[in-house]
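Still learning folds. Look over my entry:

…
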Amino acid sequence: MVVVAGARRVGVLAKVPGLPSTSRRSGPACLVALVTVLLLTSAAPARAQQPHYDWEWLQRQGPMFTPFQIPPDILNREHLEKAKVQIDGYVEGDACTTTEVWLLIDREGVTRETRIKESARDRDMDRLALAYANIYRFSPALRDGDPVPAWIAVPITIGADECPPGPEGGPKPHPAHR
């Protein structure tokens, strides 16, 4: 397609399939067709519009599914192991509890909020789990290569590395619940 522009007219010379020669078109209809063709051919392929989340909005909404391709990764495992030894000292005997905690991780990988997802049915153990959860430091979650805030759920076991199964197959109950 060749565009011919003059002082008063815009014309398009186009080889139309099925016609023996080049046809010449001009006038307002031609201009509309030209603009349409240019817009359609110059537009970049549309990327799916991703929702924009900031951590303050996610905090107000509460724990929810937040899309990402690469999950946050724990960066301070050694510090967490030292803190777990101290926290495990609060548990009597061989008892242990598991609390599942929601963590809101911002674009920098900082834990902005913690909430109980599944309680250990012991207020003190849940508080210890929340305090421990605030120690976590992460790499941010990534979506399309960009850091995004995200809610993630983390099980936190206090008292042992793994809770032996209790009578119903679940974790062994804390002494206060026996």
